[in-house]
What we know:
Helices cover 48% and strands 21% of the residues. By secondary structure, it is an alpha+beta fold.
Amino acid sequence: MMDHQEVQELLPAYADQELGIVETLEIQRHLNGCADCQREYTAQCIVSARFKKEAGYFDAPPHLAQRIIAALPQDAASIRFWHVNWRNFRWRNVGAAMATMLALAWSVGLYLNLPSDQDKLTEEVIASHVRSLQVDHLSDVVSTDQHTVKPWFNGKLNFSPPVVDLAPQGFPLIGGRLDYLAGRPVAALVYRHAKHPINLYIWPTTDRDAPPQSQSRQGYHLVHWTWDGMNYWTASDLAAADLQQFADMVRSVVRQ
């Protein structure tokens, strides 16, 4: 269990979503009972968002690659393209070439091992789902009436999430809450099926429509898709086939 000082030190990384799920859950539990850390976390989120918004980004000039190649040892460039001048073969030049190639391979390996944006978002969704269960914070508004839950988001989000009633199909709505994913506030709608809670996250996107994609991670099942300018992610420990059925029902109602 983390103490107050440890949480304070990790809050910047927590605000930037750089921690693992175990540390994230421990900090979340601490935040629920510590007003000082809640204020500090809010301040960290504001600072992080400002940096991301105001950071300058620069495109590399087109001639940069040519300058890098020109700066490499001549034999290194030759070896890279398998054109070795054996008459001028020198171990010193081969060593420089190998060092350059190993450095390049190491850099590429690091890049390829970095988690993709999709992997990061998947981890965020799972962490949010687990957090909502462990801290008993499934809903900010508790209601089975879609006409109560939908208006509750007015003024809290800059979009209006579609809220569907699936009680007749065995997936009753039980409430909703605000959450934070992909660097922005999102709507989290909460459903239940056979005592299994289901989180349905919704937020706007500029991505093109995409069909449902299913995956499993850490014992949880997820389905996500894009439709009509909205991202949909749903997570649960429900059986994969049942969660897919739920996602298909949501898509069917929303597309009407």
